Backbone:
C-alpha cells in the first residue's frame, strides 16, 4: 500500500520534503516552484535527501538501487534510468547525493549541450540489509502526513504582542512542562534574567497560542535567526542569544566537489526564499534583504552573492570558494563533528573603512568559531553564515542575520563610532542645511553646487511646522542618521530622501530604510522613499513590492536659489494640507 510521508529533521521539526513508501523502496518527490508561491513543493529537497541517505547508513542499512521515477521515464526499463551504480552503494552519503544529483541533471540532455537539466527530480530508492524488525519508516525518520502542512502566515504571527510573550515567559518559569511538543533550547536561548534562559520556540509557541486562540505547534513557525519569532521576542524586551554549548572546532571541507555542491545548495536556498525585482536583483520578503548573484571573476561557472545594498560600503559579498580547505579565501565550507555542512566567512569587510579583527567582533556582536584544516600565512577569524543542512528558510534567515550585522558594522565604522548599541534608543540629530557650497577646482573650474537634499528637507520642515506634525531627524549612537521621522496623519513615517532616481538610488534607499528600521527599533513606521523626479515603472513596482512607499518630488533653479515641489499624495500621509 502506497502512503505519503513527510521527512522530520533531527530537531523534530517537519521539513518540506515528502515521499511514498512501497515495501523496501521509497519514492522521493521532486522539488518545484519557489517558496511562498502556490506552486511551491518540497522546497527542502536537497537537505532532506542528504539526511535520508545519512540515516540509512547510520542504521546499518544501505542503498541497493536508485532510479529516476518521473512520468517521462517510467516507460523505460529500470536499468535505463539508473542514477547510482552498484559499486557506489558503499560510498559516503554525501558522495551518493552528489552522484545522483549530477546524473539527474544530465539525463537525456541533448548531446553536446552544457545547459539545462534538473537536479531535483522524483527518484526511487531501494534500501536493503535492514536489521531484523527494522521498518523503513523508522530508518528514514519520517511521519505519515496529517494535519496542517503549511507554516502560519506572517500576518497571524504578528498578532503576538509583548503581553502575550510576557505571560508565556511567566508560565514557562513556573512550569517548564507547560509547552508540550516543544523541546529544549538548541541553537538559541531567550535571556530572561541572569539565572533564567528559555527555549525561544517554546516561549513564542505559548504566546502565539494565546494570541490566535488555538494550539500552535513547532512546525507552524520558524525559530531561526531573523525570524518573526526572534524579532517579536526581542521587541518585547527579551534578548535572543546563541545557546551556551561547548565549542567544538569545525573542519574545512577539502573535497572541492562537495564544496561546490554545498555552495549551490546555499544559493538555491536563498533564491527559493526570494522573488525577482528585475535587473538581476532578488528580494527576501521575510528578512528584508536584497541580493544579486554575480558570475565569479575568479572561477568559471561559479556564482558569488552580493547582499545588502548597492553601495559597497553598506553591503557584504560572499564569494564562491576557489578550492577545498581554502584557508586563504574569504569564505569556505566546513563540517562540524557530526558531519553537518556549514558556510563560514572571514570577519573581514573590505573597503573604506575596512572592518576586521577585534573591530568586526565588537561591531557585529558575533563570536568567531574555531576552524581547523588548511594552511594560511596568518591566523584567520571565521564566523558562521549558515548551517547548510537546515531547512531552506532557516538558511535564508541565518544568512540575513549575518548580512544585517555586517551592514550595521559598516555603518558604525563609517560613522567613526566606538561601539554600536543596536538596542539603544536613537538620539535627536541636527537639522539639514540648504543653500550652496563651493566645489574646489580640480580638473573642472570651481563652481557653486546646490544642496538639493537639504533644500528638500527644509521645504518639508516648513510645511510640517506646528500645530501640524513635526519632522525630526534621528541619529543612532553609532553616528549614522535617518533623514526624517514624521508623526503622520495615519501613523509614524520613516523617511529617506534621494537626489536622484536611478536604480542605484532606489536600491540604496530601500536598503537604508530596512537597516535603519531595524537598528533604531522603528519596525512599526511606514517606510517612505522620496526621489527626485519619477523613476521607471519597473522601479516603482519593485520598490512597492518591498513594502516601501515611493514618492517623487521636483525641483527647479530660480534666481533666489532652489524651489522644491513636494507631491500632494506624500504630504497627505504626512498630515499636511499645504
Residues:
Amino acid at each position: 500500500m502506497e502512503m505519503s510521508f513527510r521527512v522530520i529533521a533531527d530537531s523534530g521539526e517537519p521539513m518540506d520534503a515528502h515521499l511514498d513508501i512501497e515495501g523496501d523502496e521509497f519514492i522521493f518527490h521532486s522539488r518545484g516552484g519557489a517558496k511562498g508561491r502556490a506552486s511551491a513543493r518540497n522546497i527542502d529537497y536537497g537537505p532532506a535527501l542528504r539526511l535520508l541517505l545519512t540515516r540509512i547508513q547510520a542504521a546499518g542499512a544501505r542503498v541497493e538501487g536508485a532510479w529516476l521515477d518521473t512520468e517521462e521515464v517510467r516507460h523505460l526499463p529500470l536499468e535505463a534510468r539508473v542514477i547510482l551504480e552498484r559499486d557506489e552503494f558503499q560510498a559516503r552519503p554525501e558522495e551518493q547525493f552528489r552522484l545522483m544529483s549530477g546524473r539527474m541533471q544530465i539525463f537525456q540532455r541533448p548531446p553536446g549541450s552544457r545547459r539545462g537539466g534538473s537536479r531535483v527530480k522524483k527518484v526511487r530508492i531501494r534500501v536493503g540489509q535492514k536489521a531484523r524488525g527494522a521498518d523503513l519508516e523508522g530508518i528514514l525518520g519520517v511521519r505519515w502526513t496529517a494535519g496542517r502542512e503549511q507554516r502560519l502566515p506572517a500576518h497571524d504571527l504578528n498578532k503576538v504582542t509583548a503581553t502575550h510573550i510576557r505571560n508565556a515567559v511567566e508560565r514557562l518559569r513556573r512550569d517548564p512542562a507547560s509547552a508540550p511538543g516543544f523541546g529544549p533550547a538548541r541553537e538559541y536561548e531567550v535571556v530572561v534574567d541572569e539565572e533564567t534562559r528559555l527555549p525561544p520556540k517554546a516561549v513564542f509557541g505559548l504566546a502565539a497560542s494565546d494570541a490566535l486562540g488555538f494550539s500552535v505547534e513547532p512546525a507552524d513557525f520558524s525559530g531561526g535567526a531573523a525570524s518573526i519569532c526572534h524579532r517579536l521576542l526581542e521587541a518585547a524586551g527579551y534578548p535572543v542569544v546563541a545557546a551556551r554549548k561547548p565549542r567544538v572546532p569545525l573542519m574545512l571541507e577539502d573535497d572541492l566537489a562537495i564544496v561546490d555542491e554545498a555552495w549551490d545548495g546555499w544559493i538555491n536556498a536563498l533564491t527559493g526564499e526570494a522573488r525577482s525585482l528585475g535587473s538581476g536583483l532578488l528580494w527576501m520578503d521575510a528578512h528584508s534583504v536584497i541580493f544579486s548573484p554575480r558570475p565569479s571573476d575568479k572561477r568559471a561557472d561559479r556564482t558569488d552573492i552580493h547582499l545588502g545594498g548597492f553601495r559597497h560600503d553598506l553591503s557584504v559579498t560572499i564569494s564562491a570558494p576557489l578550492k577545498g580547505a581554502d584557508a586563504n579565501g574569504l569564505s569556505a565550507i566546513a563540517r562540524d563533528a557530526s558531519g553537518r555542512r556549514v558556510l563560514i566567512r572571514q570577519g573581514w569587510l573590505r573597503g573604506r573603512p575596512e572592518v576586521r579583527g577585534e573591530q568586526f567582533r565588537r561591531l557585529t556582536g558575533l563570536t568567531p568559531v574555531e576552524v581547523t584544516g588548511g594552511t594560511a600565512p596568518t591566523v584567520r577569524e571565521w564566523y558562521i553564515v549558515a548551517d547548510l543542512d537546515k531547512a531552506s528558510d532557516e538558511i535564508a534567515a541565518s544568512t540575513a542575520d549575518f548580512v544585517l550585522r555586517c551592514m550595521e558594522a559598516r555603518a558604525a565604522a563609517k560613522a567613526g563610532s566606538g561601539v554600536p548599541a543596536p538596542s539603544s534608543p536613537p538620539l535627536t540629530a541636527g537639522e539639514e542645511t540648504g543653500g550652496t557650497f563651493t566645489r574646489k577646482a580640480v580638473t573642472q573650474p570651481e563652481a557653486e553646487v546646490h544642496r538639493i537634499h537639504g533644500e528638500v528637507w527644509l521645504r518639508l520642515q516648513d510645511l510640517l511646522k506646528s500645530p501640524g506634525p513635526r519632522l525630526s531627524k534621528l541619529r543612532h549612537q553609532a553616528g549614522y542618521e535617518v533623514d526624517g521621522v514624521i508623526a503622520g496623519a495615519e501613523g509614524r513615517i520613516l523617511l529617506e530622501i534621494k537626489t536622484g532616481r536611478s536604480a542605484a538610488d532606489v536600491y540604496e534607499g530601500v536598503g537604508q530604510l530596512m537597516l535603519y528600521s531595524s537598528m533604531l527599533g522603528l519596525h512599526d513606521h511606514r517606510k517612505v522613499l522620496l526621489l527626485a523626479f519619477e523613476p521607471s515603472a519597473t522601479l516603482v513596482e519593485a520598490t512597492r513590492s518591498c513594502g516601501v512607499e515611493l514618492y517623487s518630488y521636483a525641483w527647479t533653479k530660480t534666481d533666489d536659489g532652489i524651489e522644491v515641489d513636494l507631491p500632494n499624495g506624500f504630504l497627505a500621509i504626512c498630515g499636511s494640507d499645504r
Residues 150 and 298 are 41 Å apart (CA to CA). The radius of gyration is 27 Å. Residues 252-414 form one domain. The chain has 14 helices and 31 strands.
